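Pipeline run #58 for the internal structure catalog. This entry was flagged by the ingest filter as a single-chain record with no existing model, so it goes straight to prediction. Upstream metadata was stripped on purpose; only the residue string is passed forward. Reviewer on rotation: M.T. Logging verbosity set to normal.
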Amino acid sequence: MSATAVKQPACDVQSQQSLSPEQLSQWKAAQERASKLKRMKGIAAFNRWTMTVLALLSLPFAFFSIVGFLSCAALISLAVVEFLAKQKLDRFEPVAAQLLGWNQVALLVVILIYCTFSIFQGMYQEGEALRTLSAPEYRDALGLSEQDLSDLKWLYKSLIAVTYASIAGLSIVFQGLNAWYYFARRRQIQAYKDQTPAWIHQLQQ
């Protein structure tokens, strides 16, 4: 339960004059420290649901190829870790930052492996469209020469390489920055944990 989630009970206690002035001061200070982690929670929520959607979208492909199955399994596993990390983050456990950071590194590895495989496959295997165009009946109907087919194959391979290389490059930047951001937040969570009284931590359980 987050500090925001337990704000209302604290107000109820305050209205019943159950908190001393010192405790009220401690509570307000804890709320202020927790607000500094609000952006991290927002980024984590965006990444969590994005990964969940990607896992669901990849599910149909899991039944048609081993690559699709492995990609889907990896995304589902990463999404599960995101939700586990959320529970720890809501309790302000410093390990949440490490889990989220390493999960971004793991996602980057999955993306790089997939992109490398796709580039390799594109370089050494013709796509269905190229195989169709290479068939004599289609080639004659379209008036394609051997040079035309060679140019189309070069264009196809170039597009595959550029597309997946771009995805890999953007992922290195995006996931790399995300991982760095999470790792850097561990110190903030630890500071909140150290500076917040035990009775407030108990309310957050």
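catalog note: The chain has one domain: 33-203.
catalog note: The two ends are 6 Å apart (CA to CA).
status: ready for reviewer M.T.
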